[in-house]
Each structure stands twice: as structure tokens, then as C-alpha cells.
Amino acid sequence: MREALFVKQNSDKWKEFENLSSGDPDQLAERFITITDDLAYAKTFYPKSKTTVYLNGLASKLHQSIYKNQKEKGSRIWQFWKMELPLLFFKHRKKLLYSFWFFIIFSLIGALSAKYDSSFVRLIMGDSYVSMTNENIAKGNPFGVYNQQGEFLMFLSIASNNIYVAFTMYVCGIFFSVGTVYFIIRNAIMLGSFQYYFFGKGLGWASVLVIWIHGTLEISAIIIAGGAGLVLGNSLLFPGTYKRIVSLKAGAKEGLKIVIGLVPVFICAAFLEGFVTRHTEMPVWASVSILVLSLVFIIWYVVIYPHQLNRKIKETQQQ
């Protein structure tokens, strides 16, 4: 499409968007998504034109209008979970996908390393942990590590540690995403070798039924935290038409919101690990139900719902 036609078709809409008086967060979110789509098109086909500069500025104004500090309303938290966080998942879906594939690939590498090198698990997990688990297996209680500590103390310890790891993965994205990728690889190799260790002992299915009761939410949240770190790092590496500092501020804020949004997920995972996983003799149907429900929730809230929400917003704009 020629630039003149592109401007003619959209100029009325852009002028309307310049009116930032709307206090409706849903309407502001709709405007922001629409204008960023137009900006992406302009950057692709007219990268050095005044139209691109104009749209860049308008997108920046809308962004500030959405995220500026203002008196919070009672529904603000609900809007964050209902609209803002899912839209961030959609906007940064590629970073989340990169984090997912990094994690899957290096988990497989960890498992293969454990398969072909008997000392690898001890190198990754530590001699004391492997020796303790071997003793538990010999006693007929291979997952005894999950009931060695009181429920509440275990819950607090695991929740605080996982939240700390998630924020660390995010903050380390400032090192041009390399820091985040390092932590993704580290956690993935650890998980792969840990999981293969039980398969090598003939306890693969049993380990899945026990470990993934809490692991489904926990590992999913770790992967998403990796995506948040990539949002921060890539905003520094690839500022696009924005000034690098402007891009960094936006990436830092959006990545932080994603990590904050993961806190309840980590708390739920820690609750399951502290209070439920320790019951290693629970019925198979109960374990499978928790695992499947956790997986369905993650897929729906992080993948399906954001796409549905984005499509709904676009359809509303076209009406």
C-alpha cells in the first residue's frame, strides 16, 4: 500500500486517538494495541517517513496514558489480571516462546548428559542430595525429601526462593538478555538431569505423578520469568524507532509487570509442594487431576485467553 493511501485510510482514527481524555482502561488498551499495529506496519514499509515518527510519538503518548501513576481504583487490580497481564503475554509472545524452547532444548540436553555420564547428576544436583535420594530409594521412600520439613516452613521457603529466582532471571536480562538465557539454561539442565535420574532408577512415571503436582505451575512460571527477562534485554538490544533509554524503560516496566503477575502462581506451586506433594501415596487420579488442571490453566491464561482478548479488542475497533 502506498503511504499516502495508508495515511488517508487511518488519519481520522489517529486524530481520535490523540484525545487521551478517556479514563476507561479497556478503551486505552484497545487504542494502544491498534496504534502499535499501525506503527509496526509503518516501520516495515515506510521506516524513515514522517508517518512512522508520528505514530511512534502517538504510541508513546498512549503508553504513558495507560501506565502513568494515578490514584488506584478498586477495580485496578482486577483489570491487571483481566486485561493488562494477558495483553502483555500476547504482545511479548515471541519472547515467551523463545524462553520455552530454550528451556525444552536444554532440558533434553540435561537428560541426555545424565544418561551418558553417570557422574553428571552429582555434578548438577550435588553429592549430598543424590546420596540422600539413593538412601530414600533404598528405604522404599524415593520422594522422602518432600516430607522432611514442616508443611508451612517448606511452603514459605519454596515460595520465597522461587520468587527470588524469577526476579533474578528478570533483572539479569539487563545484560543484553545473556544473563536471563544463562539462568534458563541452568534451570533447564538441572530439571532434565533431575528428571532422568528417576527414570534411570525405574521411577519415571512415579516421579511425574509426584514432582509435577507442583512442578507444572512452578516450571511454567520459571519459563515465563525467563520471557520477562528477554523483554527487558531485548528492549535494550532492539529499541526500534524509540530512543534506547525510552525503549529500556518500557521493556523494564512491562517485564516487571509480568514477573509480579507470576507471584500468585509461585505461591500456589509452593502450597502444592509444601502441603500436597508430600502425600506420595495419594491416588493416581488425584495427582493426574492436579497436574492436568494446572497445565490447562497455564495454557489457557498465557496462550489462549490473550489471543482471544486481542481478537476481541480488534473486532471492537473495527465496528
Short key terms for the protein model shown above:
319 residues; 2 domains; single chain; transmembrane helix; mainly alpha; transmembrane
Radius of gyration: 23 Å
- Overall pLDDT confidence: 89
The outline comes out as elongated
The string of secondary-structure elements, in order, is HHHHHHHHHHHH
* Head-to-tail CA distance between termini: 22 Å
By DSSP (H or I, 4+ residues per run), the number of helices equals 12
Q: How many beta-strand elements?
A: 0
Integer tally of domains: 2
Supply the helix-strand structural class.
mainly alpha
* Helical percentage: over 70%
Q: Strand portion, in percent?
A: under 5%
Pfam family, one: SpoIIM
Keywords: Membrane, Transmembrane, Transmembrane helix
Transmembrane segments: 96-116, 163-184, 196-213, 219-238, 258-276, 282-304
Protein name: Stage II sporulation protein M
List the helices and strands and how they pair.
Layout: H1 3-17, H2 25-45, H3 50-67, H4 76-91, H5 93-116, H6 120-125, H7 127-138, H8 151-171, H9 178-200, H10 204-237, H11 244-276, H12 284-318
Helix pairs in contact: 1-3, 2-3, 2-12, 4-11, 4-12, 5-9, 5-10, 8-9, 8-10, 8-11, 9-10, 10-11, 10-12
Transmembrane segments: 96-116, 163-184, 196-213, 219-238, 258-276, 282-304
Organism: Arcticibacter tournemirensis
Protein name: Stage II sporulation protein M
Characterize this entry briefly.
By secondary structure, this protein is mostly helical. It has two domains: 3-70, no CATH class; 91-318, no CATH class. It contains twelve helices and no strands.
